[in-house]
Amino acid sequence: MKANMQKGFTLIELMIVVAIIGILAAIALPAYQDYTVRAKVGEAIIAGSAAKGLMSEAFQTDGVAGMTAAAVAFNASPIAERTSKYVSNVAIAEASPWTITVTLAATQANGIPNVLNGQTLTYSPNVANAVPTAASVGAIDWACGSATTATATGRGLGNVAQGTLLAKYAPSECR
C-alpha cells in the first residue's frame, strides 16, 4: 500500500514564516525611514560645505578680516542662491566666531517629517582648536553640531556651536 505523501507546507510552517517576516518588517521599516531622512539631510551638509570652503579660503587669504568680509558677501547673496528642496537657508555669522548655520526645509512634499522644519546644523571654524584670531596660523578644522556636539567636543575643538537637528538624523560627525 502506498502511504500518502505530504505535498506543500503545513499551516504551522506558513504561520511561522509569516511571523518572521512580520518581525523583520517591524524592525526594518523605522530604520529605513530614518535612513531616508538622513540621506535627505545630506543635502544640508553639501550646502554647508560651499560656505565652509568660502570661509576656509577667506581665512587663508586674508585672516579674520577676510572671514568677516566673506560672511558679509555670502549673506548679501540672494536667498534663492542659498536654498534648495531640503534647505531653507544657509547663513554665516558676520563676526567671531563665524558660525555657519544650515536650516532644513521640511514639508510633506519633500519627504522630511514636518517636525524637522526649521531645525539646524551648525559648522564652527577652529584653528589650533580655538576660535580663529588675528594671530591664528594654520588650517581651519570644522566642528559640526546638531542637537548634540559630543563628537566635536571629543575631538578637543573649542569653538563648537550646537544646532537643533535631532542627533538620530545628523551624520555621525555632527552628533
TrEMBL record:
GO BP terms in the entry: cell adhesion
Keyword set, alphabetical order: Fimbrium, Membrane, Methylation, Transmembrane, Transmembrane helix
Transmembrane segments: 12-32
InterPro entries: N_methyl_site, Pilin, Pilin-like
Pfam family, one: Pilin
Gene3D superfamilies, per the entry: Glycoprotein, Type 4 Pilin
Record carries keyword Membrane: yes
Keyword Membrane: yes
A GO CC term attached to the entry: pilus
Similarity-based family: Belongs to the N-Me-Phe pilin family.
Protein name: Pilin
Originating organism: Phytopseudomonas punonensis
